[in-house]
Amino acid sequence: MQSIIPVKLPQNAYEIHIATDGLKEIGKKAKSLNIGKKVLVISNPEIFDYYGQTVIDSFTQEGFSVNYHLIPAGESYKTLDSISKIYDTALNLRLERNSTMVALGGGVIGDMTGFAASTWLRGINFIQIPTSLLAMVDASVGGKTGVNHPQGKNLIGAFYQPKLVLIDPLVLKTLPEREFRAGMAEVIKYGVIWDKELFNRLESANNLNSMDVLSADLLSYILERSCLAKAEVVRRDEREGGVRAILNYGHTVGHGVESLTNYNTFVHGEAVAIGMAVAGKIAVEAGLWTEDELIRQNDLIKKAGLPLDIPATVDREDLLDSLQLDKKVKAGKVRFILPTEIGKVIIRDDIQTDLLRNCFRAS
């Protein structure tokens, strides 16, 4: 599998390279970017044990001076304290403005590495090597970086584009099944909001809940179509002033569910799946799309082994309150991304509280 998808931005254009066994080529690809010789690889211990040496060797063979910094795995470490520790390492290594931070990991590592790179010396180079399906199809592309605040997800952050995104599908072989399923939530999202052909292709698959049941062709199709969708939306709206907000389909309620369960009950994709199911119900109640389309969406979510319902332990009034902390709130109004047909969505900020309460009930 070899393909290059350009992310065409006016100031910060870059490429997404999808390359089987591509980890061994990262040094060569980085060298072509004409960056400085100092590289800091940021990862978590488990991912680093699998792939860290391969990445370091590839950089070293091309004449880079490479060090690494490890952060424990998990959303609970996506904090300013973790960023401060990255700064300490950057200072000790005397990273310079032409130095590079490399994110080797999933979305949490990518978000933190990008934020650290965007703020160290007011911005140094940044390369993404996503190792989870969710990061490959979503988090690594588009330049959103940041950390969580105790009261809300990703409230602290910056838009900061990488110099390169390298996706090696082979690393998915070591991805836990739960994390693979979580990534499928974002893939389904692209089908609902943007790409009807992708949605139809997913519907034709017998199962979506494991890497083992996907053919190489389907995996290739999923990666390419998802990255193409994300790249095109980001090209049209780099800093989420308009159309890019549609990428948050399922995230409004999803982020609230994550926050109210202290980030230790659901992984991100599971919460997004719940959010999509709720958003689909809202769309039906608001007369925007049909019950049949909602069923088709939810069948895909179930086919990927993902949850549909807000857990009983989450207080519905607390969830309503949490929506006000969402980044997409504008002039005090919560904005929802709602489908009008498979492949198309609109943004609405006039959804009534009683309708929301009704849609928060279990299916």
Automatic annotation (TrEMBL):
Ranges where the 3-dehydroquinate synthase C-terminal domain occurs: 183-329
GO molecular function, a single term: 3-dehydroquinate synthase activity
Binding site for NAD(+): 107-111, 131-132, 144, 153
Enzyme class: lyase
One Pfam family in the UniProt entry: DHQ_synthase
Subcellular location as annotated: Cytoplasm
Co-factor binding details: Binds 1 divalent metal cation per subunit. Can use either Co(2+) or Zn(2+).
Predominant location category: cytoplasm
Function: Catalyzes the conversion of 3-deoxy-D-arabino-heptulosonate 7-phosphate (DAHP) to dehydroquinate (DHQ).
Similarity annotation: Belongs to the sugar phosphate cyclases superfamily. Dehydroquinate synthase family.
PANTHER family membership: 3-DEHYDROQUINATE SYNTHASE (PTHR43622), 3-DEHYDROQUINATE SYNTHASE, CHLOROPLASTIC (PTHR43622:SF7)
Protein name: 3-dehydroquinate synthase
Gene from which the chain derives: aroB
